[in-house]
Give the backbone structure.
Amino acid sequence: MGADVKTACQICRGACCESIVLRLPATDAGAWLALHGVSVGQHQVEIPAPCRKLSACGACSIHATRPDHCRTYVVGGADCRATVARRRPTDAAQIIAAMPRAN
């Protein structure tokens, strides 16, 4: 992790690890899912499911051996920035300012 990434992740405290986001179109099941704590967007479904490997301070306790899915998540990418804006609205500007700009 670069210095900027590390700083951004420390401020963020693992917003990306608090839910599972599935990319699929919203359906008529959206109202049912919303009643059960599942957020439905235009092209995704978000299920609150904090990673069990996320420490109390929001750090990944298995960072060196984390799964491939976590390794491919782009810190500073569009998904990362959207997650920060949604889950850390109060600190979003500070977190995003600390991130490297991803392609």
About this structure: The mean pLDDT is 79. The longest strand covers residues 19-23.
